[in-house]
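To whoever picks this up:

The parser on our side crashed when reading a file containing two proteins. I've narrowed it down to the boundary between the first structure block and the second sequence. Both blocks are reproduced below exactly, byte for byte. First block:
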Amino acid sequence: MINAFRSARRVVVFTGAGISTESGIPDFRSAGGIWTRMEPILYDAFLTSEDARLTDWERRFDMAERFAAAEPNAAHRVVAALARSGLVTTVITQNIDGLHTRAGVPREKLIEIHGAGDHATCLECGTRHEIEYAKETIERTGASPRCTACGGLIKAAIISFGQPMPEAELQRAMEESIEADLFLALGTSLVVYPAAALPQVAREAGAMLVIASRAPTEQDKDADLVVRTPLAATFAIIEQVKI
């Protein structure tokens, strides 16, 4: 893999929940994952039901605490170091935990296609609000928070089930995948579309495809290399190698 990095012109890293489980953040879809223990709040329900909004916010506050308590592991650190050095062109993530940012991936090289859980945005005007503002509002009023600029609903800046994907981020992710000559899919089950199409797009455009996942994926058969070892442990070894 190290030789592939050295010879590649454009390297894209695509990450899913599996890169963060070793930092103590549970995933969503595997056995024992979050969605096996609770039903997700659909986007339409958030828009139309105050009860749904309050339930969603309660979950977001819990997630924010989990994210704040977690630390980037060796996989996050190595990916960030490679991005800063220029060996990785772009990091595309499905994760909402902010660990890539905290590990040091440059903002201009990071595409968060499912959003981020460290802040909220107004669904009407897009104004950013901090999670703490939402928490304080609910504790004080018992009602879901509203935008300080326009009075619209605010929501954690995370793509919910049924919510349209961010077009600009998805378009950029597609373009970067097409341009890649090495594409690494790390810790992703590759079942959630359209994100799961990115490795296929890269492969069809001629990229070498590496899949590192603790469980088999439907795209393993198309990969040039499949890695099954735990990501943090594997990258802890790579972290000791001068690339």
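<<boundary where parser fails>>
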Amino acid sequence: PQLTQQLCRLTTQSGTTLFMTLLAAFATLLYRYSGQSDILIGSPIANRNRSEIEPLIGFFVNTLVL
């Protein structure tokens, strides 16, 4: 709980989301282990951004490289 509170405080202070803060920490960890400066991380993004496709059944997910 204490670490979560500290992460939420850091997120609020930096004006980002918790996802962005944790993604930056993960990218830093990968950099430290690999020594590579170009780190590509894939994140699944749901493509239900229009109300008319919300009731459709199917797998509408793309992987976005960050």
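After patching the parser it read the second block fine. Residues 18-34 form the longest helix (17 residues). Strands lie at 42-46, 61-65.
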